[in-house]
Design brief:
Number of domains: 1
CATH topology: Rossmann fold
Shape: globular
Radius of gyration: 18 Å
Mean pLDDT: 91
Largest sheet: 6 strands, mixed
Length: 231
């Protein structure tokens, strides 16, 4: 398996509840996310996988532990440096696709290039990304004219457009039927091959849990197992 692009060491995440109670969501999480692969964080709802993904994507910070990206200590960065890291090196695909409703498919993807400060040929890159997700014929459509699966594919094109190192996908197939869910995961796997990008995806869908190159099982905030699969 590839070398690690992200590593955590004994990461804990504890949330303060009302009445002085505390909720220990992640407990001493130590994992290595392989570079240039699709890694799945699997487990039931409430297991802590989304909290872990938010920490890996620097959307949240642990109470203690280490987070290393490309050999760099992420937790020591300033807020501004973390924001730049997310903007330049990470992409995000969420269960709620959050496309901008008054923008066309093309404009939604191009907007992400402007936000990231992409300095290449934006028009060419937008069309390239839409080709990779099979939406070349939908360039001028509005989000509301697309199916749920097509909207998710636009969200994927938007996430990969600025050529990030890692794309985090949190339950990206939860609102899709089984066939569409499989097609979305296949797009992820094709993008790993074509773009060399690393994908980290959470799911509680049992039919997708062995669809990646590697998987971590999370149960009650702890790593239960790590598996590797043949491509």
């Amino acid at each position: 398996m590839n070398d690690a692009i992200i590593e955590t060491e004994k990461v804990n995440r504890i949330f303060d509840l009302s009445g002085g109670e505390k909720l220990h969501v992640l407990k001493n999480i130590s994992i290595k996310v392989p570079r240039g692969a699709l890694t799945i964080l699997k487990g039931p709802s409430g297991s802590g996988k989304t909290t872990l993904m938010n920490i890996l994507g620097v959307l949240d910070a642990p109470n203690d532990g280490k987070l290393i990206f490309n050999g760099r200590d992420v937790l020591s960065l300033s807020d501004k440096e973390k924001e730049l890291l997310r903007r330049k090196h990470f992409g995000f695909v969420f269960q709620s696709v959050s496309l901008i409703p008054m923008m066309t498919v093309y404009e939604n993807v191009e907007f992400s290039l402007r936000l990231s400060g992409y300095d290449g040929d934006r028009k060419s890159r937008v069309h390239e990304c839409l080709r990779m997700v099979g939406l070349s014929a939908r360039v001028d459509h509005m989000p509301q004219e697309l199916s749920g699966g097509e909207q998710q594919r636009v969200a994927i094109a938007r996430a990969i457009a600025h050529k990030p190192d890692v794309i985090f996908a949190d339950e990206p197939t939860a609102e899709l039927d089984s066939a569409t869910a499989v097609s979305v995961v296949n797009i992820f796997k094709n993008l790993v091959r074509e773009e060399g990008v690393t994908f980290v995806m959470t799911t509680h869908d049992t039919s997708l849990m062995s669809a990646g190159d590697a998987a971590f099982t999370i149960d009650n905030g702890e790593i239960g197992s790590r598996e590797e699969f043949q491509s």
